[in-house]
Amino acid sequence: MKNIVRLALLLLSLHLSAQTPEQKLNQLGIEFPQIPQAIGSYVDMVQAGNLVFLSGRGPLKTDGTYITGKIGDYLTTAEGYQAARLAAINQLAVLRQTFGNLNRIKRIVKVNGYLNTSGYFTEQPAVMNGFSDLLIEVFGEQGKHARTSVGVFTLPKDMAVEVEMIVEIK
User: Fold this and answer.
1) Contact 54/91 with Cβ under 8 angstroms?
2) pLDDT averaged over every residue in the chain
3) In sequence order, what DSSP letters do the residues of the chain get, joined into one string?
4) 141 φ, ψ to 5°?
5) Is pLDDT above 60 for 5?
6) How many CB atoms lie within 10 A of CB 23?
7) What angle do CA 20, 24, 28 make, to 5 degrees?
8) Predicted local distance difference test score (pLDDT) of residue 13
């Protein structure tokens, strides 16, 4: 009986790990928002060889507004986590819009997170886990990345978070 259970778990894990990023997004019920034009004199991403450098993206909601405010004053760590997760969804939307789907992503290389925080807030890593956890859910081992989490005095449009990342493509 134990061998049958082990075999079933092995087959299940192989099935789950064989899912494409697109299948995982569907399984998670994630829908991408429409990506607006850049709010400055820059582009959403630049490709150099097999590396893609994405400009900072914030927690843009489907209604076109951002999650705003200082984490630690107006937003809790948990609300900041959700804002960072939403920023990840927006970055993935840029990649999908550019490449047609996410199956060309070989690995997430680096993530830089900037958090609009109060002066005494020190939970930046816990907030940025919202971004990182989603990437790991979608890409598995290839979603694990190097990361920086920095608290800043303010962000454009009073966004709660802004995150940039570097991605390797196939």
Assistant:
1) yes
2) 90
3) -HHHHHHHHHHHHHHHHT--HHHHHHHHT--PPPPPPPSSSS-SEEEETTEEEEEEE--B-TTS-B-BS-BTTTB-HHHHHHHHHHHHHHHHHHHHHHHSSSTTEEEEEEEEEEEEB-TT---HHHHHHHHHHHHHHHHGGGG--EEEEEEES--GGGBSEEEEEEEEE-
4) -55, -35
5) no
6) 13
7) 170
8) 52
Q: Which residues neighbour 70 within 8 Å (Cβ) at sequence distance 6 or greater?
A: 116, 117, 118, 121, 160
| Of the candidate ranges 4-13, 45-54, 66-75, the one whose mean pLDDT is the lowest | 4-13
Q: What are phi and psi of 13, to 5 degrees?
A: -65, -35
CA-based nearest residue to 24, from 143, 138, 142: 138
Question: Which residues does residue 167 pair with via DSSP β-bridges, in sequence order?
Answer: 52, 108
List Cβ neighbours of 147 (8 Å cut-off, separation of 6 or more): 110, 111, 112, 113, 128, 132
- Pairing status of strand 105-116 against strand 51-57: unpaired
Q: Is the pLDDT assigned to residue 11 strictly greater than 60?
A: no
- Residue 44 pLDDT > 70, yes or no? yes
Please name which of 107, 96, 92, 100 lies closest in space to residue 163, comparing C-alpha atoms: 92
